[in-house]
């Protein structure tokens, strides 16, 4: 069915005209129209649409459709998710055709911390890409999950990201939760989109960083956007169109090399996210002068610090192939039982050995 098929369902606030409903299933490949009633006045467009398109359409999915230009108000495309709805607004949504189910299951070992019918929690090892993309069409966490979970894996996040509600960088290790049902995907996606501001979501990372922050605790509240190379991220002025609110809270857990004035100092820092932007911790820590050890994108200027270290630590730091960043803690409410859940993952051996090396020098 074409995304602009004239026979697609037309939905009106107080009733349905046509031959379907968004609650009958995912309205992929169709065109939907709604009229805003009195109860919609003043609501955000993304919030209102998520409520109207049924339990299987998450707010993050609606936001993506808005940004893709698939939503029109009064016949005019909009791309602002925060736009306010007015009584009588006619809103149309062109749903894209479903993508072919490209990823295939692969027998890749998973470190499963917890699993039930709704979700699975895993400890992702460093080096594992989360979902297929350019240059990584196989060997990803998604391929492993498809093999492990079979048909139970939620596809609402798109065929290349089934069940994925948040992600970790390829070389970042630690706790991840994946939805196995559409219901769980919607609930968890909303929790991560809210970043725990109104719920019980908590995320804590351990980062080995260069230098010792002046204060034992602190907050980096700086918007992030694309860097000049359009690939990395950077702290940008709040006025920029691509600026995204980003807040990282940090606490110094251990200090290394304080008495070695001629040597490079370092710290083990716990970072808690109030927002979840791409590369957020890596960019924020580099911004305050304490980039993550081994970070190839944001810590290049500090690579020579390893030369000030004694052997064998010097060699170990130079040989470390990735950023020393680990998602150690994840807390959230279960999407169906609503009970609080808490998961911790031990620091992987390579990072633990690196930290131990700093402890000894």
Automatic annotation (TrEMBL):
GO BP of this protein? enzyme-directed rRNA pseudouridine synthesis
Question: Which InterPro entries does the protein's record reference?
Answer: PsdUridine_synth_cat_dom_sf (IPR020103), PsdUridine_synth_RluA-like_CS (IPR006224), PsdUridine_synth_RluC/D (IPR006225), PsdUridine_synth_RsuA/RluA (IPR006145), RluA_PseudoU_synthase (IPR050188), S4_RNA-bd (IPR002942), S4_RNA-bd_sf (IPR036986)
Family the UniProt entry places it in: Belongs to the pseudouridine synthase RluA family.
Q: Which organism is it from?
A: Mesorhizobium wenxiniae
The residues responsible for catalysis, as annotated, are 169
The record describes the protein's role as: Responsible for synthesis of pseudouridine from uracil.
Q: Does the keyword Transit peptide apply?
A: no
Write the Enzyme Commission number(s) for this entry. 5.4.99.-
The residues forming a coiled coil are: none
Q: Which SUPFAM superfamilies match?
A: Alpha-L RNA-binding motif (SSF55174), Pseudouridine synthase (SSF55120)
Official protein name in the record? Pseudouridine synthase
Matching entries from SMART domains are given as:
S4
Keywords per UniProt: Isomerase, RNA-binding
Stretches for region Disordered: 1-36
Q: What top-level class of enzyme does the UniProt entry assign?
A: isomerase
Query: What's a Gene Ontology MF term here?
Result: 23S rRNA pseudouridine(1911/1915/1917) synthase activity
What this protein catalyses is: a uridine in RNA = a pseudouridine in RNA; uridine(1911/1915/1917) in 23S rRNA = pseudouridine(1911/1915/1917) in 23S rRNA
Looking at the record, the residues that make up the RNA-binding S4 domain are 43-104
Q: Which Gene3D superfamilies match?
A: Pseudouridine synthase (3.30.2350.10), RNA-binding S4 domain (3.10.290.10)
- Give the transmembrane ranges: none
């Amino acid at each position: 069915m074409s995304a602009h098929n004239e026979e697609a369902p037309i939905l009106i606030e107080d009733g349905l005209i046509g031959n379907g409903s968004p609650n009958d299933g995912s309205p992929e490949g169709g065109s939907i129209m709604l009229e805003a009633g009195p109860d919609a006045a003043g609501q955000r467009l993304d919030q209102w649409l998520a409520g109207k398109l049924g339990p299987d359409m998450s707010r993050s999915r609606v936001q993506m459709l808005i940004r893709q230009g698939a939503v029109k108000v009064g016949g005019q495309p909009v791309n602002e998710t925060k736009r306010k709805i007015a009584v009588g607004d006619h809103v149309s949504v062109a749903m894209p055709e479903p993508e072919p189910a490209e990823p295939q299951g692969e027998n890749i070992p998973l470190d499963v911390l917890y699993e039930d019918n709704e979700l699975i929690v895993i400890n992702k090892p460093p080096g594992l890409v989360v979902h297929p993309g350019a240059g990584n069409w196989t060997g990803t966490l998604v391929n492993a999950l498809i093999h492990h979970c079979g048909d139970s894996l939620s596809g609402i996040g798109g065929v290349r990201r089934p069940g994925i509600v948040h992600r970790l960088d390829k070389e970042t290790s630690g706790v991840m939760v994946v939805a196995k049902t559409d219901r769980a995907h919607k609930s968890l996606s909303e929790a991560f989109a809210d970043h725990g501001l109104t719920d019980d979501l908590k995320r804590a990372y351990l980062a080995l960083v260069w230098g010792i922050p002046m204060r034992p605790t602190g907050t980096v509240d700086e918007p992030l956007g694309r860097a000049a190379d359009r690939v990395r991220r950077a702290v940008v002025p709040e006025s920029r169109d691509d600026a995204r609110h980003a807040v990282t809270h940090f606490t110094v857990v251990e200090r290394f090399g304080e008495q070695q004035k001629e040597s490079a100092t370092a710290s083990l820092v716990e970072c808690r996210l109030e927002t979840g932007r791409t590369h957020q911790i890596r960019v924020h820590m580099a911004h305050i002068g304490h980039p993550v050890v081994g970070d190839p994108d944001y810590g290049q200027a500090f690579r020579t610090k390893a030369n000030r270290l004694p052997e064998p630590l010097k060699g170990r730091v130079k040989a470390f192939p990735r950023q020393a960043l680990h998602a150690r803690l994840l807390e959230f409410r279960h999407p169906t039982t609503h009970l609080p859940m808490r998961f911790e993952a031990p620091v992987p051996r390579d990072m633990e050995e690196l930290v131990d090396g700093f402890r000894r020098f």
